[in-house]
Amino acid sequence: MCYNIHNDFRNSKNFAHSTRIYKEARAFFAPPQNMIEVKNLYKSYREKAVLNGVTCSFESGFVYSIVAPNGTGKTTFISILSGLLAPTSGEISFNGDNSIKDTYVVLAGEKNLYAKNTVKENAMYIGRISGKTTKEIKKQTDFLRNRFPVYNDVFDSLVEKLSYGQKRLVALLSSVIADSSCIIMDEVSEGLDMNHISLLLDMIDYLKKDRVVILASHDYEFVANVSDYNWFLKDGCFQKMYGRLSKDQLVSIYKELYTVMED
Amino acid sequence: MKLIRAMLSEIKMDLVSAVRYRFGFISDMTVFTVFLAFLMLSNSGVSLAEKYSYADYKGLLLYGYIGWMLAIAAISTASNEIKNELQRGTFYLKMNSRYPIVVLYIGKLIAAIVIQLVITVIIAVLAKLIWKVALRFNAMILAALIISTFGMFGIGLLIAGVALLHKRTGALTLIVQMGLLFITDTVPTSDLLAKITQVVPLTSCNEVIRKSLAGTSDTRALILLIAFSALWLAIGIIAFNLCLKKAKKNGNLLMY
């Protein structure tokens, strides 16, 4: 069964009660600054349907994890959200406007940045092509340098000289400069050590305050640590939606839903 | 104004990166110098003297060669850079930019022209010292080179569009770049072929430049150059945007 998350999510018995109360109370006292609505999203390649009428909404202030095995449409869904892929039909609106794609994608691996340029030059570039003035970019980078010492440490370094973990963190913080209302992270914790994971959690906690944060990851410990919502994709739609879950709960649901053996 | 700043930022990123990646610059300069030396030593441009009634055929050949250097840089900027950015994962930054993606690539083109002009100056000086080529630059020559480069950028965008859909276009780009040397009258070709390929901006550019050097400039050649360059640029932009739309529909962008 596909849940229409927009309408049915709140009534789902799987939905964590405490999270719902929190979300509703928060929405009452402080309406979300950013909201993404997905309506009847379909995507098929030739005859094969990958997404089957996904309807859901994302609000700033929360981290959403899309959980699914490889080949179930996870990449397709986040690619459509980020504008890299066109849906067969359906609608996505950012704060009520369906003519824009206000997302920033942090791709897996060492991608996302210009290696022969410094972190500062990358920040300036990303800000510029996002329509920001020098003053606005400087204000953001100054803030980030104060808030995240790791960013300050590498600010004048060439991207190619950074460690793998530093590249991931810098790529993530670049989204602040782009000022997108939604950040999509693909396997963001992959290959990171504990120190970098800890920094990453801190950054995501900061980022989600006024942005929608969407994760696609197979690192279930990380997903359990960071996610406010866990949505399980199967047969082209979200079959199960939960609030916060422990790693054990996550793995148990995963096994039940996808009938696979996991460590 | 913000659009101009975004473009300037693109230019700055590329120039700074090129300065840091000095080996690329030195390697380009070596290849272009060796290639020019081969053309000069094989007396490839002799027939140009007769065609343009201008004795310094090496000069006529050199200026055509400069036009070709800029043309292949323009094609590379569009086709190879877009493919590189897709592999590097930075293409989506441009896709989600507030500005049209082609405008940002025009910034890259300007940076490539600047770098290529530096190489051009060095090669021209070498040509003067080694082969005693008389160097002459005027507004007509400069304008023709720039207009042609933008037209060739359109052809590059067309190839880039194909690259979005079919990925492996490196060989195609190389064939086009090398083919241009021999079909656009850069290295003398038959009059018939030159007439057929006049629709290629580089062929028209060669004619404008050489007539200007020989003191027989005519506005018809310049008008043709402007018209064909504008046509190719428009075709390139439209084709690239159509291919991008199709690539988004097919999911080609996810497979890099």
Explained architecture:
The complex is a heterodimer of chains A (263) and B (256). By secondary structure, chain A is of the alpha/beta class. Chain A has helices spanning 5-8, 17-29, 74-82, 119-129, 134-147, 149-154, 164-178, 194-207, 220-226, 247-258; strands spanning 35-45, 48-59, 63-67, 89-94, 103-106, 182-186, 212-216, 229-234, 237-242. In chain A, a hairpin with a 2-residue loop joins strand 1 and strand 2. The longest helix of chain A has 15 residues, at 164-178. The radius of gyration of chain A is 18 Å and the shape is globular. The relative contact order of chain A is 0.18. Helices cover 81% and strands 0% of the residues of chain B. Chain B contains eleven helices and no strands. Chain B has helices at 2-20, 22-41, 46-52, 57-88, 91-95, 101-131, 139-166, 170-183, 191-196, 201-214, 219-250. Chain B starts with a helix and ends in a 6-residue tail after the last helix. Classes of the chains: A alpha/beta (263), B mainly alpha (256). The A-B interface holds A 45, 75-76, 79, 82-86, 101-105, 107, 109, 111-117, 121, 124-126, 128-131, 133, 158, 178, 180 and B 2, 5-6, 8-10, 12-13, 16-17, 20-21, 88-90, 92-99, 104, 245, 248-251, 253-254.
